[in-house]
Amino acid sequence: MTETTRPLAVAVVGAGGRMGTQVCQAVEGAGDLHLVAAYDVADALGDLGGADVVVEFSVPDASPDNVARCVAQGVHVVVGTTGWDEPRLERLVDQISLAPPSRSGTGVGVLVAPNFAIGAVLMMGFAAQAARFYESVEIIELHHPDKVDAPSGTAARTARLVATARADAGLGQVPDATRVDPDGARGARVAGIPVHSVRLRGLVAHQEVLLGNVGEQLTIRHDSFDRTSFMPGVLEGVRRVGDHPGLTVGLEHYLGLA
Predict the structure, then answer these.
(1) Which among 21, 166, 215, 249 is least buried, having the fewest CB atoms inside 10 angstroms?
(2) pTM of the model
(3) Is residue 1 part of a domain?
(4) Active site residue 147
(5) Pair 137, 85 in one domain
(6) Is 45:69 a contact under the CB 8 Å cutoff?
């Protein structure tokens, strides 16, 4: 940061939550960023404290309205809330197209990232690379029991990346002879990929991708033991979102990993 460059003004929506609290601490500890506002549940967003960038970690039901409010004011947004399915993303693209220029004069940028841990981003990329070589693949995601949605955004994103890689390689459905499963023991299907969710006290955020062929298994696993593991990715998103007008889904696009 040069002497003439002011710190980037950052507001946090969902500041009272587990992730929001960590984000506020990370922003306050970064010399090139300045925390200008912290909003919790039921707080009016108002003018967003004059923020250049908003970090949004709320809940799935509230997130689309929060992000739309930011975009309508020409403020870049880094979104960590899960639940952003295709219809929501399509509406967001329309909202961005109608947004005024950002305060720096560029188009508004929005990053929606299922996971900000660098290792998790790598795990998703590795899984997509490996998927075309294996007949079978299943995903197990494990989180703390206070998580309100299942499967996790990371698992859903991984499943879609894996399914795309399999389709590009000409692979069909994963083999599964199960015909009787009244209680759903075989898990959910996301883009045709089996996904299993575990909720257990003591966990934070963990995921395994299991890939199998005859006589062989590959396991790709990532573990976040503390929410501080997400902060380098969040800060990278904050610093770079203004350089990426429009909608970007996945932190990998900012890291040269897409």
Answers:
(1) 215
(2) 0.86
(3) no
(4) yes
(5) no
(6) yes
